[in-house]
Structure of EGF-like domain-containing protein:
Amino acid sequence: MSKQKILALFIVGYLLEITTAAEPIQILNSHIAVTSNGVPYWGLYGNMTADKVIDVSVNDQGSAVYCGCCAALERPAWVQLTLDKTYLVEKILVLGRTDGAFVQFDNITLLLGRQDRSLQNEKFTLKNQSFAMTVLAPPREVYAVRVSGSVSLTTYMTICEIRIYRQADCVHGTYSVNCSKECHCLSGSCESVTGICMNVVCQDGWRGFACNETCNPVTFGANCSLICHCYDNETCQHINGTCPLNLCAAGWTHDNCSAACNQGLFGENCSYACNCINGSTCDHVLGHCPDNQCEPGWTKSNCSVACDPDMFGKNCSSRCHCLLGASCDQSSGHCPGNLCAPGWTRSNCSVACDHGIFGNNCSFPCHCLYGERCDHVSGHCPFDQCAPGLTLRNCSAECGQGMFGINCSSQCNCLPGVSCDHISGHCSDDQCAPGWSNSNCSVACNQGLFGLNCSSECHCLHGANCNHVSGNCSDELCEPGWTNSNCSVACNPGTFGANCSYICHCFNNEICHHIDGTCPVNQCAAGWTHDNCSVACDKGLFGLNCSSECHCLHGTNCNHVSGKCSGEKCEPGWTNSNCSVACTPGFYGQRCLMDCHCDKCHPVNGSCVGSLQCHDGFRMENGFCTPFSPECHTDKNYNALLAVSSVLGVVVAAVIVLSVLIIRWKHCQFVGETRANRESSCHKMYDDLAPNSTNRNFYDYLQMS
């Protein structure tokens, strides 16, 4: 066996000896659950999974690979042991391999945790090549133990066994770290960590899960269920309830002040006697009698005080009602001389006046609305509402002049100087003031009417109501067609509509309808249109019925009434003050200043449409009369002379030609030529006159130069 193995076994043996001497108890593996993170080593002889750390086997001989007793997880990795409950742990032992792999514990750390707290790092108390140990002094509450290995020179973190040792069991009646706390269980032991009693029942005077808390200051005994009754609320002993100086609170007695006073007694030291009616028992603390019923003539909670001068009877609950506030008998309530205060009657003046009467000796009648009961003392009616026609607090006076009805709250609405009935409100002459109607003139005119006998109609905007007396509208706005302060006057002639603010535009200045502005026979004045002639002619139109077109330069608008153009500039072809007259025949264009040189032409562009000929000196070209070329004469007489000369020239030429023909004919006849020669000669003569002569100027000599 190698020296390293011998050393490891020695250390393990030493630790086991120390553990036995300290008497901690190893937590059984059946109370531990193992979880891990990291891939386990898989070998020929089986796997080295995390559960091997609690298999009770250690690597004490041979190779750890063959023993099947160790866990090997590829780094980074961790193994966590979770306990079945929280223990007070004293020691944690981590055992490694003993076969020579002495770098197995490189970069390993220990973490401890509680159920209510996350894992926290914990230093190893001692660590070498094959084991690591942590000693917790004092013992600590632990629920989970984790050993974690980070990346190191070795691929695997190898652990053969993890052992957790808890604190030894405490003696009966103690618990917690080093058994330093006491528990007060009625029977049996308490849990070593929390101190909770196994039977969940505490000794007298104790409470809490571990029965380690005394009762609240005002309780004692079993389950702290008994109440302390000490003088001045002092705290009693939490186990037996005894009070300081044995002084009990009022109404209590006995050694621990837990017993109430005997029947018929109450108060401090139970030294006061009860004074309840018919000898009944009073409250043992304060002396209160059942239902506060004292002997007649006595009062207060313990019935020890006589009634006040104005009270009498049982519990002093009845009030004296004697004349002028005199005192009555405290027991019976009888008044001196049997004189009762107003509103009261009977021998002890304890009964109020009957319904309908009030006052001294109940001798005055009530006058309340609908016969309601009045106050039996003062005669006041409910809500101060008297019967119609009566007033004052006790309804004993008639209404003043000008008022009538319930509580005299209605005003008479009669004509000036006329009175009304104080009960019904009827006017003596049956004539109501303006704005009122009904038999007693108490009803305002119906909506839409006002004035005397409600005979005038309201004319308010949108049907708003008018004042039933004056007719004034609530918003001071009249409906269209009406004016005046109460909207009772139609609009003045020539106006109409809302506030009479619209002007009539009727033909021949006729009067329009004062409400909607419609004109007689629906005829509007020049320049106006629409149902009520309130709309000016559309752009480009003017005049009566808006039937005339504007002819303004560049299409500008004309006055919708007169047709006059802005700047009095007409479009070409039109004239007159309102540009409504076309140019006179023979003229056209802007302001009709241009001559078209024909009898009838287009007034805008001057084309001679409809004319057969132009004026002298002009000729028709494309519908327009244009002058001849500049070398032609334009004198009218010269043109006539030229025409006549042309006609005469043609006639003279014809005469000359005819004369030549006759002369030659005769010459052929008288020369004596043969017939044949004559015919030949004559034919030649005609041929000479034929138009196919090559002399282009043959006829020119016939023309006048």
Observations:
- Residues 1-22, 632-644, 667-705 have pLDDT under 50 and may be disordered.
- The first strand starts at residue 25 and ends at 26.
- The two ends are 170 Å apart (CA to CA).
- Helices lie at 3-22, 64-67, 636-670, 675-688.
